[in-house]
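Render Acylphosphatase in 3D.
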Amino acid sequence: MTEQDSSHLLERMTIVGDLEVASFVPWIRRHAAKLGLSHTISHTSPIRIELEVAGPEELIDMMEMGCSLGPIDVWVERIERTALSAKRSSAGL
């Protein structure tokens, strides 16, 4: 395993737009689970959803792309990402 493969990030993702919370929140949960990302949704409203996601950077990028395309009943205007921490696993631990 390379060092890049063992890095994990924790990021806050703020999704802004015309959001149908009742369908989008379960969709977000399913998408994060499919990608194997840990996630916690901390705020939901018809215009903003905030969540924290943890995992490899490439998978968080995929989560952002999926959310930007989202289900048909939402319109995502923008997604803001804020790094909260980065963890690197040491070989042999």
